[in-house]
Amino acid sequence: MKRLLFRLLILSVFAGCASNKAFMEGKQLLLDGRAEEGFARLEEVVKQSPDNVEYKSYLYNQRERFINQWLAQANTVQLNSQFDDAEILYRRVLNLDPQNQRAQAGLDGLVQERRHRLMLDEAQAQQQKGEVAPALATVRQVLADNPRHRDARIMLRRLEEQSAGDSIVSPQLKSALARPITLEFRDASLKAVFEIISRTAGVNFVYDKDVRADLKATIFVRNTTIEEAVQLLLVSNQLDRRVLNDRTIMIYPNNPAKQKDYQELVVKSFYLANAEAKDAANLIRTLLKTRDIFVDDKRNLVVMRDTPEAVRLAEKLIASQDLAEPEAILEVEVLEVNRARLQNLGIEWPGQVGYGLLQGGTTTAVLGTGGNTISEVTTPGNTVAQGVIDLRANPSRLTTFIANPALLVNLRAQDTNANVLANPRIRVKNHEKAKIHIGDKVPVFTSTAVVNAGIAQSVSYLDVGVKLEVQPTIGLDEDVTIDVGLEVSSIVKQVNFGDSIAYQIGSRAVDTMLRLRNGETQVLAGLIQDEDRSSVTKIPGLGDLPLLGRLFSTNNDNRSKSEIVLLITPHIVHNLALPARNISEFRAGTESSIGGMGAVGGAPSPIPSSGVSSRSVPPAAPAVPGMIPLPGIVPFQPTPAPSTAPAPVPIPPPAAPAPAQ
């Protein structure tokens, strides 16, 4: 039996040595960067020694560390469009932890990212060809799937800057209506003018039954696009339109009843990153008069339902508001310099001489040879008896006494220098307050008498130390305006009142507002507290003698001086990123029509740059094809001025003129 136990002991020792060797090999493999092999070896060790806490703890900790590291690397390379490398990292994570949801979601997102990358490449190719509208549609589709797609947001901003104005019409219809045309009519039939435009652009016009047949049109435009001419005709006759398909436009009266029947509404969800949802909703309600709007504060989401024109304007408004707040790091250094000098020199004499009865004395009996008491020796006490005493009853116990020690020579000089330094660095957002407290919370005990309950004890805490409160305002010119509040407090002395304890607090405070450049250091100094205290303890009369009076007095001189110095330096982390001009300034239509005189499709036209006309007419306008007269309609031919080119010559009517509507 002993031999069997001995053999089992030897086997367990060898097994432990083998497990430890495999454990060290696994650790070394991890250090060498061979993570998969290292974790495989460590898992074998844990299976062989399931009760070893050290092996399990190391395996789980290292696995968690490597998984987090690989996920962070995968996110970084994915942002740089290195999708193959990101996929490798996600699969390495799943090999270690097959149930890891972040890695699985990352792999699923890579499929969408690759598709989005192809769409963005297509949009970029369309942009290079000058096809801005299709490129905008492609980019908006990407942002509909992922509103936070960085490259898509950048491309959208660039396309919006390049585009002449957003349009919800199809590319085919936009291309047809982009052709130039010259119209010169006075009191002509509106439907006949639209028929001319229909033949020129190849666009069909359908009229609502309530559009009056006797509407007249007077229009004189040269070298303008067909879509602008259509919009002018509609606005001047209180009409509106709806795009039905690539070749058809519905025309109807512009009144509330018809708008409800024909005007298409769009639902748009805005997930905000920086702005508050309620503020964005108020902005949309105020400027666009949108009534159907929903706010989800939990998700910071705004959902609106309005016309496509209003939705496009809301996108620009939210893009100009949903900006990251500026942030700054405030480097603060608080220095308190204390200098104290104490000098206590002289002879301290007793301050009291008394004659009275002392308590606490002892009486010792002196015994003779036969054991009889011969006499008693009384030793006086050291405590003065309180109250009234009988001098006749205890004459032997009365004695003269003075305080002990009877004479004290003070020879003391003390110098103290103390520097208390606090150097915090805090990061704070624009217009937000940041507070710093470096010190102690001093307990203050209070006793309160409660009826029928006795005395109740309570404790409260008082903040003592350095308290700093700052609120920065970061300007666009890289200046930082800081509202600074500094208070330095300390305990001067403790005050006892009955069963309650209070403290006398010495405090120095400053509250100011200063304006600094980015990286500029400002020193606030001069908060000086200077104390000079002198006290003399002497024997009356003798202490006033010249020269000799020093022998009968003691002097206590205490001088202290402290100064508070505050150094503050702002460092702007990032400032407000101003939106592009087409986001911060754009046409918004009229009071009664959102989008107003924009292109067909309702989106507002961009504001022309300063000094450049949005419709510049060349000095000599050539004849533009597209003026096709109809029977019964005589185009108005103005008499040309001597310095102007002759009016365009109308194209002869076709052999079979179309019947007038």
Q: Can you walk me through this structure?
A:
By secondary structure, the protein is of the alpha+beta class. Among the domains are: 11-99, Alpha Horseshoe (Serine Threonine Protein Phosphatase 5, Tetratricopeptide repeat), CATH 1.25.40; 111-162; 266-306 and 308-321, 2-Layer Sandwich (Ribosomal Protein S8, Chain: A, domain 1), CATH 3.30.1370; 330-341 and 410-574, no CATH class; 352-402, no CATH class. 31% of the residues lie in helices and 36% in strands. It is built from 14 helices and 22 strands. Strands 9, 15, 16, 21 and 22 form a 5-stranded antiparallel sheet that branches. Strands 17-18-19-20 form a 4-stranded antiparallel sheet, with no helix packed on it. Strands 2-5-4 form a 3-stranded mixed sheet, sandwiched between helices. A hairpin with a 2-residue loop joins strand 19 and strand 20. Helix 3 packs antiparallel against helix 4. The N and C termini lie far apart (120 Å). The relative contact order is 0.10.
Short description:
Among the domains are: 11-99, Serine Threonine Protein Phosphatase 5, Tetratricopeptide repeat; 111-162; 266-306 and 308-321, Ribosomal Protein S8, Chain: A, domain 1 (2-Layer Sandwich); 330-341 and 410-574, no CATH class; 352-402, no CATH class.
What topology emerges from the helices and strands here?
Layout: H1 2-31, H2 35-48, H3 53-79, H4 83-96, H5 101-128, H6 132-145, H7 150-162, H8 171-177, E1 180-189, H9 190-201, E2 204-207, E3 216-225, H10 226-236, E4 239-243, E5 248-253, H11 256-262, E6 266-271, H12 277-288, E7 292-296, E8 301-306, H13 308-321, E9 327-348, E10 353-359, E11 362-367, E12 373-379, E13 383-384, E14 398-402, E15 408-422, E16 425-429, E17 434-450, E18 454-474, E19 479-497, E20 500-517, E21 522-538, E22 553-574, H14 581-584
Parallel strand pairs: 2-5
Antiparallel strand pairs: 1-3, 4-5, 6-8, 7-8, 9-15, 9-16, 9-22, 10-13, 10-14, 11-12, 17-18, 18-19, 19-20, 21-22
